[in-house]
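# nightly structure sweep
# worker-07 picked up a monomer target from the shared queue
# config: single-sequence mode, recycle default, output format = structure tokens
# input follows
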Amino acid sequence: MHHRNAVGVAMLAAVLAAGMGSARAFDETRYPNWKGMWLRTDTGTPRYDPTKLMGRPQQAPLTPEAQAFLEASLADQAEGGPGADPTYTCLAPGMPRVMNNYDGAEFVVTPETVHVLMEHIHDSRRIYTDGRAWPARIEPTPTGYSLGKWIDEGGTGRYNVLEVETRAFRGPRAYDNSGIPLHEDNESVIKERIFQDKADPNILNVEMTTIDHALTRPWTVTKKYRRAQNPRPFWREAVCSESNPHLEIGKQSYMLSADGHLMPTKKNQPAPDLRYFAPPKK
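# output follows
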């Protein structure tokens, strides 16, 4: 019995040692310090290219068909409609729009995954950095499936760049509120290089390239985030559906007025089909 207990203790010690070894395998000092709240440095409505205004000024390299789609979206918005912005009914913005960073981002680095936590309707991402290959089958999602690779650029002895590729999307998706479209085939490939500014570690650069069949060439932009200096930042929860007055009936967009009545969004808009409602009593 004494011998059996000794063997058990030895086995337990081996298991604990293995676990401690596994825990030590993640050397935090080899990874960049991306802790804290990151806010976009640009002002105004969030957009794909933060250096340009939204809509046509983005100068998206669209195919003629996609440009016509954008023009129709802008015309509808000029009349009061939502245009081709799929998020007006609180659909997830998806990629690459998630990285427009509406309400603040947090990066949580673990040995196998980088979690990008977005406060805006909690549309967060997982970037797998465990060396896995692309799965044979991927369930499409608005944010897609992301594989990342850490790089020690310049041989500093510490990782300083995260390279990411994202595929397997589900639409509809747009780059911003104006409705700049991604192709409906959802075969986009989005590549990112994420790294801190060498002169200011409180600036995070997100170099993003979108490859999509609605574009005539890859579209590359650089987004900049600034780390909030509050060591205990306040994370404001953004729940889209709580105060959203927009609704869609039969591919027409309507609004719910403050007094609870259905109302049109633009002039001469037809009323919804009420065939299943009894006529009002006279």
